[in-house]
Amino acid sequence: MKLAADRLLGFMLIGLAAFVAVQAINLEIPFSYEPVGPRAFPLGLAILLAGLSLVLVLRPGEDGHWPTGPLALKLVLVLALLLTYAILFIRLGFVPTSLLVVAALARLFGASWAKAWITGIALAVGSYLLFTSGLGIGLPTGTWLGAII
């Protein structure tokens, strides 16, 4: 049964990778972003996901069991935080949303409050600078804070 589940998941992830690749290819990008531009990142992730999914299809795991107790709760909380991130990304902006979600994830996995905030700030600001200055990709600044600031 485990083998079938792994292979089924692998095929589903290959389908997801194909969907992401098609969406990335169909992105309307101004000529100034070529040859790398914003199309390369999702396309690279789709290729990576397809490759790893193929490994799951060809070499499924031998034994497996569903997580229970505290680990299952942590996994559900991680999923809830990622959904929250997707919902708040445009409304609150990249930096505040990333800071809050990364700090919450760090706390969830046992970091102290100080380490969680430092990690959140470093990752949010560092990735913002990487995308905006390094790759030239604009990130949302948020619509909710725009009215306040």
TrEMBL record:
Superkingdom of origin organism: Bacteria
KW Membrane (keyword) present: yes
Identification of the protein by name: Tripartite tricarboxylate transporter TctB family protein
Alphabetical UniProt keywords: Membrane, Transmembrane, Transmembrane helix
Record-annotated membrane-spanning stretches: 40-59, 71-94, 114-131
Domain DUF1468: residue ranges: 8-140
UniProt source species: Pistricoccus aurantiacus
Coiled coil: none
Cross-referenced InterPro entries: DUF1468
